[in-house]
Amino acid sequence: MALCRTVFSSLIFFALTGCAAIDETAPETAHDNTDAVIWLQSSTEYAAATAGVYAAATTALQGMAQTAASPTSGMAIVLDVDETVLDNSPYQGQLVFDDANYGTESWDRWVALRTAAEVPGVVDFIRSAQSLGFHVVFITNRPCRARPDSTDVCPQIEDTRVNLEAIGIDTSLTTIYLRGQRPPESCRALLTTEEQADGTWSQSDKTSRRACVGLDREIVMLFGDQMGDFTEEHGASGRQTAADFDENWGRTWFMLPNPTYGGWKPRTPAEKRALMRGID
Ligand SMILES: [Mg+2]
Q: Which are the contacts of 144, defined by CB distance < 8 A and separation ≥ 6?
């Protein structure tokens, strides 16, 4: 079949060769994620990489606590949730098995199961941060979505909290902000124009949620697997954009690897060809 992966629009060619024509502009289906999901689920290298990120962050945090001029209780550690704290690779793997793509309903069924495992290293890091007195905040784009069997407008908050508890995080002293959640009164004025329309954090842009955290505490570290977990003020996806923030990486900003999805990922064969380079 590999020989068939050239663009052939001619039905005559199909008739002669038996190769199915490939639409270079159509989104690929989930099986394209097979290697990425396997890497997340079974490679030593992925677990070593994430454990290394969190070990380095723990060391940096200990240094910060020792030299802090003010109490660490006034400082916040902000983490994204998906592929930063919780490993959703079973959902991605199921999409591969089902030859399906991401969907809001299938995602919500996965969230409701509350069975995501930890990203290796994160639980020990969060326990260290909490023992040093830092406040831990989770800002996630898991969407609030009412369910037919409940009057709760955002059952995903409790799903996320219970899942975090299940991996060993004490959530009693943490803050969790989802996309679509209604902010506390003190943070309403920080909503963007788009968010003010319905009075919730309706946008994937996390800036207003970080600003809400910043009202009470200084944000001293950020963790994520997408650039939007750190800032919206960046250039196009690519190495230069990463280099623009070199002074942050590994010091106050910590990026977790995620090869399964993200703004970097081309959706179609044509987009992939446009991005990939060979030998000049
Ligand atoms: Mg994420």
A: 153, 154, 156, 157, 178, 179, 180, 181, 200
pLDDT tens digits, 88-117: 999 999 999 999 989 999 999 999 999 999
| pTM metric for this prediction | 0.90
- State pLDDT tens for residues 214-252: 999 999 999 999 999 999 998 888 899 999 999 999 999
State the distance from the centre of ligand 1 to the C-alpha of 84, rounded, in angstroms.
6
Residues within 5 Å of ion ligand 1 by Cβ? Answer: 80, 82-83, 225
Q: Any idea which residue has 């399906």 for tokens? A: 100
Domains and CATH numbers, the chain: 28-266 (3.40.50.1000)
Distance 3 CA to ligand 1 centre (A): 36
* First-to-final CA distance of the chain: 28
Centre of ligand 1 from the C-alpha of residue 88, in Å:
10
